[in-house]
Amino acid sequence: MRTLFRTQYRQDIALWKHNGDRFWYGLLAVLVFIAPMVLGEFYIGEMGAVYIFAIAGVGLMLLVGYTGLISLGHAAFLGIGAYVNAVLLKMGVPFLITLPVAGLFTALCGAAIGRPTLRMSGLYLAIATLAFGSIVGTVFQKWESVTGGFDGFAVPTPEIFGFPIEGATGIYYVSLVVLLFVLWVSANLLRSPAGRAMVAIRDSEVSAQSMGIHLARYKTMAFAISAGMTGLAGALFAHYVRYLAPDAFDVLLSVQFVTIVFVGGLGSLRGAILGAMFVRLLPQFIAVVRDDLPFGIGRLPGLEPSLFGLSLVLVILFQPAGLNGMWLKAKVWFQAFPFKRQTSFRRQKSYAKSERLR
Amino acid sequence: MEDAARILQLVVNGAASGCIYGLIALGFVLIYKATEMVNFAQGDIMMLGGFVAFSLIAHFHLPYWVGGLLAILITAAFGYVLDAVVIRRVIGQPQFAVVMLTLGLGFIFRAAAGITWGYDSVGFDTPFTNKTVNLGGMVLGEDNLSIIVGTVLLCVVLYVFFSKTRVGVAMQAASQNQLAAYYMGIPVRTIFSLIWAISAGVACLAGILLSPVSMIDVNMGGLAIKAFAAAVIGGFGSIPGSLVGGVIVGIVEQFAGYKLPAGFQEVTSNVVLLLMLFIRPQGLFAERMGKRV
Predict the structure, then answer these.
(1) How far is B275 from chain A (nearest CA, A)?
(2) Do B111 and A305 touch (CB under 8 A)?
(3) Looking at the domain assignment, is residue A188 inside a domain?
(4) A146 within a domain of the structure (yes/no)
């Protein structure tokens, strides 16, 4: 049994709550660091993809889980990051410059699209980003002189200080480093005044505004940071797929990103990573069981999107806290053993909150 | 002279497709006004309605009018059940949860339609298919005209329903203030389900009207993104606004296809939507509102 005894306010916002956290996360860090030396090429490639999706997931989590806004156009930001990175690399700019530039440029795009729409209710952002995603997709197809149109182009191999980053292992380590960076930034942002302002906006715009929070500024900031992190993920995604073609960045990918956030569990960074694991593993799982399903269900063209849709629906209806919530419940069950009660996790009755201005 | 006829034809075609966008947008707006939810599956409900009409008319050989009416009733019943069984459960969760819920439902509907009706485009014969009217030297397709006439008729019916009937007035009351409506003895939850039913019925009508112009297929729900442009132009909450917005989007799209190089037509509605949000986000028909704390 562990009892936390807080003697300083600083302990409330500490990144590590106690030494158990330090030990387990340290162990996890060692494990993911030595994973490429133990596991095969295929698993390392898949884990690298999970990290890339997790980077975008953390970005979207800041927006959806902590600011309470929703974007249905994050595939476009991933695409912008990917193309900026790949085009700059082709022009001979070193990777250590193109990666941050891709992130910053995407963040600027996010601010530009967010600033006007965020004056309205959060709903408008969902619609505007949906439209933005479709416009950007068309631009990728039509702007052939830069993007190569439908044919796409091969992404050059990145180099860091003369060492080429090749194969699954190279991408794995770069993605891991970027993911750790993004997590570090997010965790620190969330315990800063800016992060608390974002959470306040999520919980009630009116009370946040009456506490002196500039709504449009913080919403735009959250949206820009979210887009920027997705841009970073996009830059890595370009190297993961090695060959950029515009049809990769469609609405379905945006829906996958939102699935990461919802299935992982709103309002937790851990959830973003769990969600990314879910979203990357689901297609693999389908591929394995495809032939064993009855009635030829496995060969339906719309199987994957509908399973993503189904998992969204089930999570929203029955487990709003997502995978992270399940993890926390399991943890509480063990910690409280044998005192878990039927009503321990009963959801509070909630009522519709009107966002209508009347 | 020929140029004028050409332009008029573009306007009629644009108005016809605009009416479809307007009808889908009408579905959004009805639900949004009442429950502050946005139904991202509206386009997919239209697709389901179109397929139901196809089954009734092409498979069971019902006459067009009977089959169409029956399809609208079936889709409306589906909308009622959808709200009563699924959507009602998320009342109290944040607004974006509803967005994602309906988006997920849309994907499920698409897969369900694919399993039931297959992934090929289908169509059925209507009294308007491949017929033209000659109006003062101008040749217009009856299919396009039927869309416009059908939309206008629906508007009249809805107007009478909302202003004259007991249920319609109760719906207006429930949209304006749920609590007060409840205290006056209106069963608010049933009313909301009925609003979902009407909205699904309108979507089905849009699908039926659209069928002579374009085929019914699993992905026709993608039209909904154009309907968003219509709803935003109309101010998201104004019923006439959504129809006017739809017609504007439809006509702009036709002229973009006529004047601009290929590829621009598909994104026109999105560009119009974003421009509208930049210039006048509250829409053309906005009500002046402020919040009391």
Answers:
(1) 10
(2) yes
(3) yes
(4) yes
Burial A4-32 (b: 16+ CB within 10 A, else e): eeeeeeeeeeeeeeeeeeeeeeeeeeeeb
- Number of domains into which chain A is organized: 1
C-alpha to C-alpha distance for B59 and B54, rounded to whole angstroms: 7
B271–chain A nearest CA distance, Å: 7
DSSP for B77-123? HHHHHHHHHTGGGGBTB-HHHHHHHHHHHHHHHHHHHHHHH-SS-B-
Contact B168, B161 (CB under 8 A): yes
What does each C-alpha distance from A33 to A48, A176, B255 come to in angstroms? 12, 9, 58
Write the residue in A72, A120, A126 that is nearest to B281 by C-beta. A120
Query: Nearest CA to A205 among A60, A46, A67?
Result: A67
Q: Give residue for tokens 């999105």.
A: B270
Interchain contact, A300 vs B115, CB within 8 Å: yes
Q: A271 is in which domain, residue-wise?
A: 35-336
Q: What is the CATH number of the domain that holds A89?
A: 1.10.3470
Asked, for residue A349, whether it belongs to a domain, the answer is: no
Query: Per the CB < 8 Å rule, is B271 touching A135?
Result: yes
Is residue B133 situated within a structural domain?
no
Residue B184 lies in a domain: yes
Residue A196 near residue A218, CB atoms below 8 Å: no
Contact flag B270-A135 (C-beta cutoff 8 Å):
yes
B275: which chain A residues are within 8 Å (Cβ-Cβ)?
none
Q: Which domain holds residue B177?
A: 2-124+145-279
Residues on chain B touching A126 (C-beta within 8 angstroms):
38, 96, 99
Q: A202-232: per-residue pLDDT in tens?
A: 888 888 989 999 998 999 999 999 999 999 9
Residues 32 through 91 of chain B touching chain A, CB cutoff 8 Å: 35-36, 38, 86, 89-91
Q: Residue A278: CB partners within 8 Å, gap ≥ 6?
A: A259, A260, A263, A264, A311, A323
- Do the domain assignments include residue A219? yes
Peptide bond into A338 cis (omega under 30): yes
Nearest chain A residue to B118 by CA: give it: A300
pLDDT of residue B56 exceeding 80, the answer is yes
Identity of the residue in B108, B115, B266 whose CB atom sits nearest the CB atom of A313: B108
B278 touches chain A (CB under 8 A): yes
ipTM: 0.85
- Chain A residues with beta carbon closer than 8 angstroms to that of B178: 352
Chain B contact probe: residue of A316, A317, A318, A351 with most B CBs at under 10 A: A316
Q: How many CB atoms lie within 10 A of CB A354?
A: 12
pTM of this structure: 0.89
| In a domain? residue B22 | yes
Q: How many domains does chain B have?
A: 1
Question: Is a pLDDT exceeding 70 seen at residue A357?
Answer: no
Give the number of other CB atoms < 10 A from CB of residue A227. Answer: 34
Give the closest-approach CA distance of B97 to chain A in angstroms: 7
Q: Is residue B34 part of a domain?
A: yes
Q: What is the pLDDT of residues B159-216, one digit of tens each?
A: 999 889 999 999 988 888 888 889 999 999 999 999 999 999 999 999 999 888 888 8
Report the C-alpha gap between B153 and B133 in whole angstroms: 20
Between CA A93 and CA A104, with CA A98 as vertex, the angle to 5 degrees is: 145
Residues of A within 8 A of B266 (CB-CB) are 134, 138
Task: Enumerate the residues of chain A whose CB falls inside 8 A of the CB of residue B93.
Answer: 316, 320, 350
How confident is the prediction for chain B on average, in pLDDT? 86
Contact at 8 Å (CB) between A129 and A113? yes
- Chain B residues touching residue A263 (CB < 8 angstroms): none
CATH code of the domain covering residue B271 = 1.10.3470
